[in-house]
Fold this protein.
Amino acid sequence: MRLIAANWKMNKTVAETEDYLTKFLKILGTPEDREVLICPPFTALYVAGRILKDTPIKIGAQNCHYEEKGAFTGEISIPMIKEVGCSYVIVGHSERRHIFGESDEVINRKLVACLERGVRPILCVGERIEDREAGMTFKVVETQIRLALSGIEGLTDLLDVAYEPVWAIGTGVPAKPEDAVTVHRFIKDLLKEINPKSEGRTRVLYGGSVNPENAPEFMKHKEVDGLLVGGASLDPEAFAKIVNSF
Ligand code: PGA
C-alpha cells in the first residue's frame, strides 16, 4: 500500500494536535487503500495515539535514540514511543543530519535498534544543492543508504526510504517529478541489489515542498510509493487533499 506521511517537525502543541486531528478525521473519513501516517512532536504523541486509536491512521515519531534507557539527557527511546502507539519513526531526516550533526553511523545504530525493537523506520536520504550541481546525487544517496544499512542488509524489507533532496525541503521548490523518479528508480535498484527481498516491500517516498497542487504529479509515477510532507501537512485540509491526490 502506498504511504502518505506527515512530518510536523517542531510544530503543534497538545491542544493544536487535538484540534487538527478532530478536523482531519472529519475531512478524511477512513481510507482503506492507502496508509496514512502522522508524525507529531514527542509531546503530542500520547494524545495523538489516543485520538487515532480506533482509526486506520498511524502515528510515528520524528526521531529516537538507539539505547533502550539510561543516562541520555533529552533523548527518547523506542520503547517510549511504542508505548504511546508509534508504529513508525523517521530516521536520519536532513534536519537531524545537518542541524544536529547526526552521522551515518548514528543513523545506522538507530535503524538497527528500530528493527530489533519492532518499529518501522523511514530512512531519509538526499543530496545537498552543491552535491547535485557537482553531479554527485547518485553517489551521495548510495553512500547514505549503504552506510545506514550496514549490518542489516538482510532486513531491509522492514523499512521504508524517503528521498528528500535537501534543497527542496521547506523551500517551495520541489524536485521535478521526472528527476525524482530517476532517483527513486536508482534507489529501488540499489535496495534490490542489497536485498532482493526488499522489492515490493520497501517503499520509496518523495519529500520536499510537496503540496496539494503538485502531489498528483509525483503520485502518478509508479516509482513513487508515497510522500513525506512537511509544511503542507500542518493544515488538515491541505494534508487530506494530498492523501486523496491519487
Ligand atoms: P517540506 O518538508 O514538505 O516542508 O518541504 C519535507 C520534510 O522535511 O520531510
Notes: The beta strands are 2-7, 34-39, 58-61, 86-91, 120-125, 160-163, 204-207, 226-229. Residues 177-194 form the longest helix (18 residues). The chain has ten helices and eight strands.
